[in-house]
Amino acid sequence: MRVLVTGSNGLIGSEAVVHFSGLGADVVGVDNNMRAVFFGPEGDTRWNQRRLEREAKGFSHLELDIRNRDGVLKLLETERFDLIVHCAAQPSHDLAARMPFEDFDVNAGGTLNLLEGVRRHQPEAVFVLTSTNKVYGDAPNELPVKELPTRWEYAREEDYTGISEECRIDRCLHSLFGASKVAADVIAQEYGRYFGLKIGVFRGGCLTGPQHSGVELHGFLSYLAKTALTGKTYRIFGYKGKQVRDNIHCRDVLRAVHRFYEAPRPGEVYNIGGGRANSCSILEAADLVAELGGGRLKTEYVDKARQGDHICYISDLRKLESHYPGWKVEISLRDILSEMIDSWRVRNRHTA
Ligand SMILES: NC(=O)c1ccc[n+]([C@@H]2O[C@H](COP(=O)([O-])OP(=O)(O)OC[C@H]3O[C@@H](n4cnc5c(N)ncnc54)[C@H](O)[C@@H]3O)[C@@H](O)[C@H]2O)c1
Predict the structure, then answer these.
(1) Taking residues 85-92, what's their average pLDDT?
(2) pLDDT (tens digit, 9 = 90+) per residue, 185-236?
(3) Which mutation among 5, 35, 104 tests ligand 1's pocket best, with the greatest number of atoms within 8 A of CB?
(4) CA–CA distance from 165 to each of 23, 140, 197, 272 (Å)?
(5) How many whole angstroms separate alpha carbon 90 and alpha carbon 114?
(6) How far apart are alpha carbons 55 and 103 in whole angstroms?
(7) Segment 261-282 mean pLDDT
(8) What's the alpha-carbon Rg for the chain, to the nearest Å?
(9) Would you state the pLDDT for residue 29?
(10) Is the pLDDT of residue 46 over 60?
(11) How far apart are CA 60 and CA 64, in angstroms?
């Protein structure tokens, strides 16, 4: 089996490399460390690339910018892949507002380059796009919520299962990042539906794991654990710190990607996240980090929510679970955080 992973230095991409190389596949990873351009030295992902080069058998790294149309088309013309897992992206709302061209060119343009390369040169390949729940913009905030001591909660029982793929994606506020991801999401669906390609679109909630290079602008759980450990101050933006996210370990994400590869569908969309069991607010996450020995988080409250930020977002996983029976979230929030704390301890030691 040959697999192409874009964004292979990043969180989900590197997990894709580990997953498929662990099964004996040849994996080509494309990444140009653009995360360091987006987020500065803290977002640098070369450490993860070196880890893969050391540890993942059958892995080779290709320094390629997915905006380079000729380079992407050439790659797909000259090398064959059974599966393409597309994870390269600009992932932050705030950065998109500062760098709108880079954001759109990477998220939308880069995705188009890959899809067209697949259509022209290897239409039999399975293609997975890591999309995001931000394609729903702030529409999920229209659900009524009630305030509990440590979190916001859906007020109506029928909403408890969370946000499904039926949630609308337009006529709401997205941020430019959400809009560029909508473009990628819809065009990927179109290559599936119009051209009959085997394309799965996975709309992630909070995808995370020990190798996450969380920064203030992206990767909340990872950044929270790191901040607690280093004794620095975590800024909470609005909603009293009771905003809820559902967190899924990237290994569980890759298990779903693998199931899709085994039984692909043309242009299908799935929500993927930790679901209710792995949901937490910022306040609850801070308590859990302290309980797990990661230190008590110092916080500063900024009385203004990030524009369009979800108040309570829990992914409804029923469609994914029904199309791929046996797949379910296996790694608990507690285990995710324990792994994360251990990983930051090691990484902080190396950078100290
Ligand atoms: N992490 C999350 O919570 C989350 C949630 C929902 C959706 N997603 C989606 O999952 C995907 C992967 O996210 P992630 O958290 O692994 O992000 P990440 O930032 O950790 O990884 C993305 C990688 O892509 C690389 N990259 C960026 N621009 C590139 C370019 N032009 N050419 C080549 N490589 C480039 C970066 O250097 C980085 O290593 C993204 O599409 C993101 O929108 C992530």
Answers:
(1) 95
(2) 999 999 999 999 999 999 999 999 988 878 887 889 999 999 999 999 999 9
(3) 35
(4) 31, 11, 20, 10
(5) 16
(6) 31
(7) 98
(8) 19
(9) 98
(10) yes
(11) 12
Atom 37 (ligand 1) nearest CA: 33
pLDDT attached to residue 351:
67
Provide φ and ψ at 301, rounded to 5°.
-100, 125
> Taking CA 173 as the corner, what is the angle to CA 172 and CA 174, rounded to the nearest 5 degrees?
115
> Which residues form the pocket of ligand 1, taking CB atoms under 6 Å from any ligand atom?
7, 9-13, 30-35, 45, 65-67, 87-89, 91, 106, 110, 130, 132, 204, 206-207, 219
What pairs with residue 154 in β-bridges?
145
Query: In the prediction, which pLDDT does 212 show?
Result: 84
pLDDT of residue 348: 79
Task: Please tell me whether residue 79 adopts helix, strand or coil conformation.
Answer: coil
| Distance of alpha carbon 217 from alpha carbon 161, whole angstroms | 28
Nearest residue (CA) to ligand 1, atom 20: 10
Question: What pLDDT shows up at residue 352?
Answer: 57
Burial 241-278 (b: 16+ CB within 10 A, else e): bbbbbbbbbbbbbbbbbbbbbeebeebbbbbbbbbbeb
Share of residues in the chain with pLDDT > 90 (%): 90
Which atom from ligand 1 is nearest to the alpha carbon of 67?
31
Q: 């990607």: which residue's tokens?
A: 257
Taking CA atoms, 141 is separated from 23, 93, 100, 305, 343, in Å, by 41, 17, 25, 13, 34
Contacting residues for 117 by C-beta, under 8 A, at least 6 apart: 72, 73, 75, 76, 77
pLDDT of 10 reads 93
Please tell me the predicted confidence (pLDDT) of residue 313.
98
Q: Say if CB 281 and CB 152 are below 8 A apart.
A: yes
> If you search the block for the tokens 């994400």, which residue do you land on?
253
Three-point CA angle 305, 309, 312, nearest 5°: 105
Mean pLDDT, residues 323-348: 94
